[in-house]
């Protein structure tokens, strides 16, 4: 609490006026960028166990199972990702495969390539 002396206009004497201290407004933290749906697709034979693994799920080969879409003959999975660049691979019946339809890839420490997706 702040205390301030103020002169009385009527009698020219000072009186003490107490004012509550006002805390400064906290700055709002910037909002995290909204996550976006990113759909991964891969052509593989029906009946396969197909997953997508990458930096977005700690490279867990069983974290995101892909669903078979019979009409299109593809497996698909949608993942919510914040803006950024992510490396990923498909795991088809236990075999790790780069995305054959994505030309964006980087070499990895296994002597193969990881596919890359960028979310804006």
**CATH-defined topology:** Immunoglobulin-like
What oligomeric state do these chains adopt? single chain
Distance between the termini: 48 Å
The whole-angstrom Rg is 30 Å
CATH hierarchy: architecture = Sandwich
SSE layout and pairings?
Elements: E1 2-7, E2 14-19, E3 36-43, E4 50-54, E5 67-69, E6 74-81, E7 84-92, E8 95-97, E9 105-107, E10 113-119
Antiparallel strand pairs: 1-2, 3-6, 4-7, 5-6, 7-8, 7-10, 9-10
Question: What attributes characterize this protein structure?
Answer:
elongated; three-stranded antiparallel sheet; 10 strands; single chain; Immunoglobulin-like; mainly beta; 120 residues; five-stranded antiparallel sheet
What's this model, at a glance?
The protein is 0% helix and 48% strand. The chain is an all-beta fold.
General description of the model:
The protein has 120 residues and is mainly beta. The chain has one domain (36-119): Immunoglobulins (Immunoglobulin-like), CATH 2.60.40. It has no helices and ten strands. It has strands at residues 2-7, 14-19, 36-43, 50-54, 67-69, 74-81, 84-92, 95-97, 105-107, 113-119. Strands 4, 7, 8, 9 and 10 form a five-stranded antiparallel beta sheet that branches. Strands 3-6-5 form a three-stranded antiparallel beta sheet, with no helix packed on it. A two-stranded antiparallel sheet has the order 1-2. The radius of gyration is 30 Å and the shape is elongated. The model has no long low-confidence stretch (mean pLDDT 88).
